[in-house]
Amino acid sequence: MEIEFNGYPTFERIAVEDLTQPGEARRAAAAIANRLGFDEVTRGKVEIVVTELSRNVAVHGGGGYVILAGWKYRGEKRIDVLALDKGSGIANVAAAMEDGYSSSGTPGTGLGAVSRIASAFQIFTQPKTGTALLARVSADMTTMSPLTVGAVSIPIAGERLCGDAFATAHSSTRSVFMVVDGLGHGPIAAEAAGVAVQTFEKYCGDAPAEIVSRLHDALKATRGAAAAVAEIEHGRDTLVFCGVGNISGIVQMPDEGIARSMVSHNGIVGHQVPRIAEFNYPWSNKSGLIMHSDGINTHWNMKSYPGLLNRDPALIAAVLYRDHSRQRDDATVLVAQPKAIDLRSE
Length: 346
Ligand SMILES: [Mn+2]
Prior knowledge:
Layout: E1 4-5, E2 10-16, H1 22-36, H2 40-59, E3 64-73, E4 76-85, H3 93-97, H4 111-117, E5 120-126, E6 130-138, E7 147-154, E8 164-170, E9 174-182, H5 187-203, H6 208-218, E10 225-233, E11 238-244, E12 248-252, E13 259-261, E14 279-282, E15 288-292, H7 313-324, E16 331-338
Antiparallel strand pairs: 1-8, 2-3, 3-4, 4-6, 5-6, 7-16, 8-9, 9-10, 10-11, 11-14, 12-13, 12-15, 15-16
Bound molecules: manganese (II) ion.
């Protein structure tokens, strides 16, 4: 079976408290666009989107931050621009989308313009909780996989390297997901996570338990990690999960209150793994897969976010990160949903 590994996504988080910082966010976005090999026109689009969304965070959100996620899969490249604040929320989204509601005062910009430039544009806003915006800029519009996948993976404050990582792989028949959390944080944790991603790349065609056992072998020379692998066979009603250590895996149902936590065994991949076992969980094309490291607390409930499950997985990951990251650790959230079903029409 031909299975294709999904690159090494790049993440940047840029704090935006006032109007001096959108420039920094724009430069970071241009750097990611260059690294991905975007042409000049597409890079220009990314820069406009990032500038406008970070201004929006500063002016209307009362400060917050922008997360940039650069993805590469086969020929497809995309940058997800996520703007997050914990402000008072946008009371009238339709009015905010109208041209003229620009935070920069420059004609031709504003959220309306951003929505026209972006290949995907979504807002999730709640009074007093804040606003999360996603604008995706793609170099082309092909499909990345049979599932839509979004993620946020951000190091603890003060570290450049993230000790968490994730990877995905897809074939025509199956998708495989891994989240890994190298023990501790900083470069040594990042090294363990990096070895895990390389190992996943090599063995992602195998079953989850086999992948985890390969990880265990490969991570012996590292500090060790928590890791979990989930496998979805397209069109089948079972998800297979295998985890060791503190990675949360959840099957989320379209009913916001119903989420099923999957079982991981205790242990440290690379050092001490008493048991590697696969567990099967019911899966449907209306379910969502959420995996996260322990940099995200487990107290979240989709009931607090009516309508969020109908949004893009990148926006779901970003909102969980904004509201539930522990701050004292690297934090990673990976969300995958079947593409075929549009939950909005349910
Ligand atoms: Mn951790």
